From TrEMBL:
Keywords: NAD, Oxidoreductase. Belongs to the HIBADH-related family. It holds the Pfam family NAD_binding_2. Residues 1-146 form the 6-phosphogluconate dehydrogenase NADP-binding domain. The active site is at K155. Residues 149-267 form the 3-hydroxyisobutyrate dehydrogenase-like NAD-binding domain. InterPro entries: 6-PGluconate_DH-like_C_sf (IPR008927), 6PGD_dom2 (IPR013328), 6PGDH_NADP-bd (IPR006115), HIBADH-like_NADP-bd (IPR029154), HIBADH-related (IPR015815), HIBADH-related_NP60_sf (IPR051265), NAD(P)-bd_dom_sf (IPR036291). GO terms for molecular function: NAD binding; NADP binding; oxidoreductase activity. PANTHER family: CYTOKINE-LIKE NUCLEAR FACTOR N-PAC (PTHR43580:SF2), OXIDOREDUCTASE GLYR1-RELATED (PTHR43580). The keyword ATP-binding does not apply. This is Glyoxylate/succinic semialdehyde reductase. It comes from Alicyclobacillus hesperidum.
């Protein structure tokens, strides 16, 4: 995402909470900071993308980063957090004289590399207008959905659908095996049908090879499902399929599959039905 953003020619300072050997891959207009204060000082826009709300609070507030930002800096949170969490975060950021835009993304590693993410944003329309040209460098489409909370709500809605699809895919593959079909055959037939989708295409090879390096870790999808179910209670929504999928994911994570890709639900279900694969 940083590399795609750098193509616009802006001067960019990048910071990661854990040290990773990525500096040599960065364009000349990207400086890798070892200190978060140096990363956010004298910046017009600060993007944040971490794993959850606690991590957002840690990188912005526990570190003191917000105190190093100039008044009026636009903080764009691309992390997936809850609706009420995003609203609380906006209030807290605003209290420092800063501006806030939520802009979680749809897509994982490959779409990020290909600048093919989809952004679902919420906040002030003027803040979205400022961020939109930058978001366009990382995403094929950016939606402005209204005030703070609307972007978070849409991201959770989409990930709920994703969670149900992953759980259903796992059931389908395992039922297919129990019925005597190879996984490759199951996917061949699904691909020829009207229900085929990009996410099934993306996960096909992982499932066929029974190897699940994390593109989107199962534990993170479970986190999002739980956030969705919490928000559903707020809006009096009834989500029986999402609730069931989250329950299965919870069992899988407890069984050691959490750090694997979300498609590892297939391996978990295989183990539950007598298969040999273990986390």
């Amino acid at each position: 995402m940083v590399q795609n953003l750098a193509r616009l020619g802006h001067s960019i300072t990048a910071y990661n909470r854990t040290v990773k050997p990525f500096a040599q891959d960065m364009p000349e207009n990207v400086t890798v900071a070892l200190d978060v204060h140096n990363a956010v000082a004298v910046q017009d826009v600060v993007f944040v993308m971490v794993s959850d709300f606690a991590a957002v609070e840690s990188v912005l507030f526990d570190s003191g980063a917000v105190e190093s930002m100039e008044q009026g800096t636009l903080v764009v949170n691309m992390s997936t957090i809850g609706v009420e969490e995003s609203r609380r975060l906006a209030d807290r950021i605003n209290s420092f004289g800063l501006r806030y835009l939520e802009a979680p993304v749809l897509g994982s590693v490959k779409p990020a590399q290909d600048a093919a993410l989809v952004v679902v944003a919420g906040g002030q329309v003027d803040d979205f207008a400022q961020a939109e040209p930058l978001l366009a460098a990382m995403a094929r489409k950016s939606f402005y959905l209204g005030g703070v909370g609307q972007g978070a709500a849409m991201k959770l809605l989409v990930n709920s659908f994703l969670g149900v699809v992953m759980e259903t895919m796992a059931e389908t593959v395992i039922y297919g095996e129990l019925s005597g079909f190879a996984r490759e055959t199951v996917f061949d037939v699904l691909e020829a049908s009207s229900i085929w989708s990009p996410v099934l295409s993306a996960k096909r090879q992982l499932v066929v090879t029974d190897d699940y390096p994390a593109q989107f870790a199962l534990k993170h999808l479970l986190k999002d499902m739980r956030l969705l179910l919490r928000q559903a209670e707020v809006v009096h929504g009834r989500l029986p399929l999402a609730s069931t999928a989250a329950s299965v994911m919870s069992e899988a994570v407890a069984s050691g599959f959490g750090d694997l890709d979300m498609a590892s639900l297939v391996a978990f279900m295989a183990a539950q039905t007598g298969g040999e694969r273990q986390a």
